[in-house]
Amino acid sequence: METQESQPSPPGSLGARRVDFDGNPNIGIFARATDTRVLLPPGISPRARRHIEESLQVPALEATIGDSPVLGALIAANSRGLLVANIADDAEISRLAADGLHVARLPGRLNAAGNLVLANDTAAILSPRLPDRAAQVASETLGVDVHRTTIAGLHNPGMAAFATNKGVLVHPRTTPQEIAILEKAFQLPLDIGTVNGGYPYIGSAVLANTHGYIAGTHTTGPELGRIEDALGFL
């Protein structure tokens, strides 16, 4: 799988902040970043891997979950641990845990952890459809308190929003009641926005941590500005 910048751009420019995977701008579906590492699907070119590592200022690890490259959809993570879909085999889990992080499978019929869980190092927001056992495993694995809410009425908070340890960006139709829950849980600045030219599923097209960010190639200048503001890069 090849990752490309949308155009040759000097470091720090808006163009350098836009990337894709094999022409797919939904980079958040394929990768997952924390303050300690970024997980990438196999086949990333050395140049692209270097670009991502430099943008996020963390080392990259290539991995799969159930032989699938859609790591962002199948993994929820913070600096303490990784919560993965239960299709992950033992070898994949061992690879993810190689540097000492706690890794656990999300129990239950619904287990695409990256879609169902929004997390940073302070809190985790879980889909209300997840069972109590899943909430317990999420709390133990990530080392945070868990909260349940929809975002914009959707049951996939991991795709409807994005959180780092500096800020939270959410779907533009997030309700005041949902915003109150998110603000109480994360205790961080929160803003609404879109990615990839108006797409409201923030988590599908952003990779970010407290050190930096990159977004899908269709993300506009104003959208990048909103990302930078919400996640504390301005």
Q: How does the major sheet shape up?
A: 4 strands, mixed
Count up the helices.
9
Question: Could you give me the name of the CATH homologous superfamily?
Answer: L-arginine/glycine Amidinotransferase, Chain A
**Range of helix content:** 25-40%
SSE sequence, one letter per element: EEHEEHEHEEHEHEEHEHEEHEEEH
Q: What is the highest CATH level, the class?
A: Alpha Beta
Low-pLDDT parts are 2-13
Rounded to an integer in angstroms, the radius of gyration calculated over CA atoms is 16 Å
Q: What is the total domain count?
A: 1
Strand content: 15-25%
What is the annotated CATH architecture? 5-stranded Propeller
| Spatial ordering of strands, largest sheet | 1-2-16-15
Structural class category: alpha/beta
Shape: globular
Question: What value does the average pLDDT take?
Answer: 92
Structure explained in plain terms:
It contains nine helices and 16 strands. By secondary structure, the chain is an alpha/beta fold. The protein has a single domain (3-230), classed as L-arginine/glycine Amidinotransferase, Chain A (5-stranded Propeller). The strands form five sheets. Strands 1-2-16-15 form a four-stranded mixed beta sheet. Strands 3-4-5 form a three-stranded mixed beta sheet. The chain is globular and about 40 Å long.
